[in-house]
Amino acid sequence: MRINLLTKLLSKDIAVEDTDFVLRPPSSSDFEQWLALRTESKEFLRQWEPKWPDDDLSEIGYKRRMRNYASGFRTGKSRSYFLHDDGRDILLGGLSLTRINAEAGISSALLGYWMGKPYANKGYMQKAVPAIVGYAFNTLGLKAVEAAVIPRNQRSMHLLQKCGFRETGFREKYLEINGLREDHILYTMMQSDFKSAQRENITVL
Known about the structure:
Layout: H1 5-10, E1 14-15, E2 21-24, H2 31-40, H3 42-46, H4 59-75, E3 79-85, E4 90-101, E5 108-115, H5 124-138, E6 144-149, H6 154-162, E7 166-177, E8 180-190, H7 191-199
Parallel strand pairs: 5-6
Antiparallel strand pairs: 1-2, 2-3, 3-4, 4-5, 6-8, 7-8
């Protein structure tokens, strides 16, 4: 599979503080690890994600993802990363900023994330989320990062709260999850809150 050079040119790695983890733009060289991890985690992940296409776990499906990632980078509407443990040379999961709106009165993005089943509930995502949020505020210059969580996903709500997000609303049938429109609880972190924590040398976790 040909490496998508556009994705690499438009984004840089994001280090995750105090770990060997790094957020890295998806590459065609990640395909084998991605396929193995997503296959192993299929039932674990599908309950929280949009419905997977029939060919999702294939080279064709992965190439489509790569095109979508590159389009998002090119248009400025999204940023997608894979979470790697460079110390062990393994792929752990992924994080994204979508619906990036840099022109509104309060510029914002929607945070998304997934973790492979073998690495879930180990605190890894709690370390990765502040890294991509810091990128959103310090590099992209956004004013707010939002996240939407299905009410039954208690672990995700706890994660966001631990990372400094505040519950800010509720949307009925907000997003499609595994083929059905689902209600979501909204969480938000403002740039001012994140930077205040940085000035006070408080880790937002």
